[in-house]
What we know:
CATH topology of chain B: Formate dehydrogenase/DMSO reductase fold
Number of domains of chain A: 2
Radius of gyration of chain A: 24 Å
Largest sheet of chain B: none
Strand content of chain A: 5-15%
Number of helices of chain B: 15
Order of helices and strands of chain A: HEHEHHEHEEHEEHHEHEEH
Structural class of chain B: mainly alpha
Oligomer: heterodimer
Strand content of chain B: under 5%
Strand order of the largest sheet of chain A: 8-1-10-9
CATH architecture of the largest domain in chain A: 2-Layer Sandwich
Amino acid sequence: MSTSTVENDAVADGHWHGSAHERKGFFTDTSICIGCKACEVACKEWNNNPQDGTYELLESSYDNTGSLGANTWRHVAFIEQDSERIEAARESGRKLVNLGMPTIRPRTDESAGAQPLGGALGAAADGSAGSGGLPSTPPMGIDLLAPGALEPSDPEDIANLDTTPPDTADFRWLMSSDVCKHCTHAGCLDVCPTGALFRTEFDTVVVQNDVCNGCGTCVAGCPFGVIERRDDGTINTPTDRDRSASDMDVPDKNTANKCTLCYDRLVDGQEPACAQTCPTESIKFGDHDDMVDKAHARVADLHAKGLTEARLYGANPNDGVGGTGSVFLILDEPEVYGLPPDPRVPTKDLPKMYANAGIAALGMVAAVGLAFLGSRR
Amino acid sequence: MSTSEYDSYRPPEPEGGRKKRRRGGRPGGGRGGPGAGGRRGGGWKNRGADGNREMPMVEDVEFTSYYGRPIVKAPPWGDEIGLYLFLGGLAGGSALLGLGAQFSDRPGLRIASRMTAITATGIGGAALVADLGRPERFLNMMRVFKVSSPMSLGTWILSGFGVGSGVLTAIEVDRLTGEKLLPLGPLRRVLHALETPAAIESALFATPLAAYTGALLGDTAVPTWNAAGRNGLSYVFVASASMAAGGAGMALAPIRETGPARLLALTGAAGEMVAMDQMKKGMHPAEVDPMEDGEPGHKLHRAEKLLLAGAAGAAAVEVAARVFAKKLAGKTDASSGAFGAGGKRSWKTRTALRALSVVSGAALAAASAYTRFGVLEAGIESTKDPRHVVEPQRARLEERRARGITDDSITTGW
Lengths: 377, 414
């Protein structure tokens, strides 16, 4: 999938006007996230976001933030998994690769009936079965994630590479910094009745808090549960947070709030606070095209090392939201991280719903007409 | 046997261990997403031997969530929005009844309908504004006209409706006060000349007002609302609006004028039953559940009971009105309604019928209100458990994959 179609589709479908800038976005590579939460802190500091909750422990590993919300625009998820879950993730990732990865496994392998699992994955399966679970390569003890540790000769063709997965670890700790997706087709933006949400020159989605009247439609419009109204929480979100924690100056109260991709910093030629502060460069920021390219390269890299659990989230311009501005590399199914597995921008269904409403309205007129015709005086 | 050409790429099943995870997706046509021609055949629902849809979920959860936390957020919409959904429909239906009453010369029904319409519009609009985070910025809704936002369209529809409805109210008030109270002077003639144009104008906005709320709830990521919207929530709401308006007319206007109101209410009641049933059939079980369990489920069940009772009452009144047509028509002045001077022998019949009419009309209106609140709260409930989000999405993803569409997933292996 060439990334240029992303731009073309987005511009055409979204009626975007010629931008002075390239589309900007994040690539969050969760495989190198260390869970330091520096992004959360930097985001809060820069955007002057108020306290969220009462500092209670949420009993969810090291995640005591809960989820994204009006006051939390970066959220680091922590997931602890045992070997069974790791193996499951690896297998589901393998299936994904099988579904649509024309470059990893040459299509010619299909004809080889005797070898139903062609190419890399067949090799992987054979490898693990043949050696009785003991991997031949890579050798134990080498850092699989180190750059160049297992460089394939040609990254585009790993069909002949032995990609036997390394020993499944007993335990792993997934950490992932979630953020607003800045969708190509943004539900929040579509349904905003005041025009408070707008598409910036960086093709990001931002709320104008002096326009927003807090109707809350965008909250329902977001398939990722990102945007939220900053208020007393009439309807509680994540963990029944008690927001009357302490008196503090809350800016933009009762309006919708979410990540702006640090619009104020971008205008000034800076990068977003979270990306700048990330010590491992797990959060990368740049032109969206470059980010997607990097993501594709990185996932291919990880696959070449046998880490089939790696997959991209949001890099596909054909998905339900037209691809996201924030692309993620994740190591398990999206719902494990609290991400929806098949999000759709609700506006996609709107023409049909309007058609239904139109027919329904005509039906109502007919019903009233018949009611008057049918009743005697 | 396989359902798609990609099935052959799957690795062999391991002995024991992890087969749980894969059971749902194959081979009998996937988990039978609701998209597959409306049929939800195999899949987890039917795995329970006793047909109880809750049962299998306990032992065979197909997904893992992030500490059970919600994926999508509920909008901060409380009872005000539920009230508005009801009142908007009531106002729309009443305006249509009022127009018909004007043309068919039913002054009692006309006045009652127009007063209902403007009252409902006023309270509904106020409820909408009150639900805003920043009510003082209500007029910001008028900055834009945005087709992609049902909330924006609805604001314009409600405003357009309010204009005509307001003019009609002024006319009716002027009439009721003997054309003396309002200091209109020569403008009185202008005002009264506007009656038919205003009635038609408000009637043009009336049905959109009753119907758009289906799209408003549908055009969200809230699983139950979105699925309902895709499966004809507007039909449910329009039928519910007809039922409410008919019920209000029955309760407020004299028996001999409310024939159309009864018929409209009965049509609406039947329509709501059918549309609700059809809608639920089209939705994924995990999206229907919030409409059947808990408080929203109670409300919807209560709505159904009230609907049946009210419809039975309305039907009885209609039959009686036709049987006793002569008694009812008798000596009553058209303008003073059924409670005016009447024959000695018929006043009992009239009073009994009127009472039944009021009670069943109120029951139908209440049924409509319960439906609106039930649907609203079911949606909010459906955001609280990620199951309602993940299961339908997984099902439709698997269903597309089973059909060989593999290039539109947000998760990609490349």
